[in-house]
């Protein structure tokens, strides 16, 4: 597709392919074999065009469209000449399905090459024969793992599992593909065959008892991973099982009908909305040009600083990692090296890449005589030191003395206002170059980055932070400089409500179970233990004394501060709400915590329903997110949705807080909140924006 950066399998592209086939190939008896490849360096085919699917209002109309595409694949097969897929870059979704219809698949060993069927991540299933052709090629277990997780398969793994027949250097792809196509035509190269199964896999996949056990395990895994909230995995299982029982053409009809059924679900609409939102957020609305960044300095080599340095080095930047002494820097370097070695063991990184990444990082400390000379070449400095205003301003002073005038200074603070850090004065001379870059821990895993300009931040500094964050692989959300920024600001009222529920005597495991059932990755009690009871206490108390007013009310934050005094800091100290004993030991509630909670609740117990628990916690979260939109802390509902899905794991299948409101209806949600406000207090009073949307019937999203 010459009009797009990447090839997608749009309706228009499929029709163009059909026209070309009929005009140039179908009736040409001189053609003995065919190679499909891409003229784009960006890749083969990145999947079906999601926006084509979204544009169809009545999803049942997708059935004949998919049937037309499938008939085209069958029509090509019917010419009975060998077809070779020559793949460089992504072959995903419909792109891989196209390749699966071919007789032979060759891919490059490029880092950019990846194969997969990620439709499940959009609440869909492979609709161009993928649920039938993939199991036949690589075996049921391998196919189910690919389709149910949507994971990408790299070239070496693809060859090993039989997904491709040959892996070559990018420079050789076209010539080898043509040579192979000729060989297939004259019989010197044999057509691809399904990978021979081991005895154990034959017993599992090809015998009734083995299949029963296999499907039982597959369903058990899906139940555990989805809590039944995502219909797509179950539909994929159904399609594969149906195909095994119905080997004729009926299996493809069943597949496309399943696709159309999933496309009509609210879960798919929500997940596609997130995908679209993530794409939208790769561009900064201001349009300002960033400065060119080659060298990034990271101040502070703790877990945050080392994590930032790791993702920065992986993307090709030269990195200076500095801390107060050699021992601290050494721990940061060890953290990165350990992570890279784990990637190597999992075949996600080569030793060459590990060595290249390591060579990009220069460790420095206060004792390194040349550190100032190194910093003289820095284009961006990111500090990740303790949350201390005086310390951060002192670091800016040190940095400004040795860096060029264009150098941008980014602070990774999670709480201190950027305006306070950047306030012009004796320590800060280039205030316009200061911006917030709030990463989430652990940095290599968490996809979100909040970028926070203060009133005086230049457009160039903001654009630079945004560009670097994008290149680091983060989804960047620009938010206003207010206490807690966006994600932590929304987290505060949740923490308050959790303490209120605990005070009422709601059991800890019931709180966790209810929110897991709602779709959160972990329950609120486990979340507090994971991030640290001390961190949760500090954030909640800070926000309680900030500008949120009654919206932080209703709880008893001493629940957390008292635990901190006892040294119960969560998982990191092996004791929080739960007691953690060993790697495999299941967290449990010990007698000391039980006694503490009995005292805290005055012996109260509550059998509050799962729905009430969910509604109360979600109401506090949604209300604060709406307030952030009302106060223009976030730019639009898309930012709000992405921020909370990627920041705290708000149920992805619900599409984010604002898409969730559109789904349940803002009017009914406001009515629910008003009911809680009458019985539980003014912390549940809906903000004005929610009242306005409820009264007008307006939605936050158009689609």
Automatic annotation (TrEMBL):
GO-annotated biological processes: fatty acid beta-oxidation
Species this protein is from: Skeletonema marinoi
Domain of life: Eukaryota
Cited InterPro entries: 3-OHacyl-CoA_DH_CS, 3-OHacyl-CoA_DH_NAD-bd, 3HC_DH_C, 6-PGluconate_DH-like_C_sf, ClpP/crotonase-like_dom_sf, Enoyl-CoA_hyd/isom_CS, Enoyl-CoA_hydra/iso, FA_oxidation_alpha_subunit
Pathway info: Lipid metabolism; fatty acid beta-oxidation
Keyword check for Lipid metabolism: yes
GO terms for MF: enoyl-CoA hydratase activity; long-chain (3S)-3-hydroxyacyl-CoA dehydrogenase (NAD+) activity; NAD+ binding
Annotated keywords: Fatty acid metabolism, Lipid metabolism, Lyase, Multifunctional enzyme, NAD, Oxidoreductase
Lipid metabolism found in the keyword field: yes
UniProt domain 3-hydroxyacyl-CoA dehydrogenase C-terminal: residue ranges: 484-580
GO cellular component: mitochondrial fatty acid beta-oxidation multienzyme complex
Domain 3-hydroxyacyl-CoA dehydrogenase NAD binding per the UniProt entry, residue ranges: 295-482
SUPFAM superfamilies in alphabetical order: 6-phosphogluconate dehydrogenase C-terminal domain-like (SSF48179), ClpP/crotonase (SSF52096), NAD(P)-binding Rossmann-fold domains (SSF51735)
Family under the similarity heading: Belongs to the enoyl-CoA hydratase/isomerase family. In the central section; belongs to the 3-hydroxyacyl-CoA dehydrogenase family.
E.C. no: 4.2.1.17
Name of the protein: enoyl-CoA hydratase
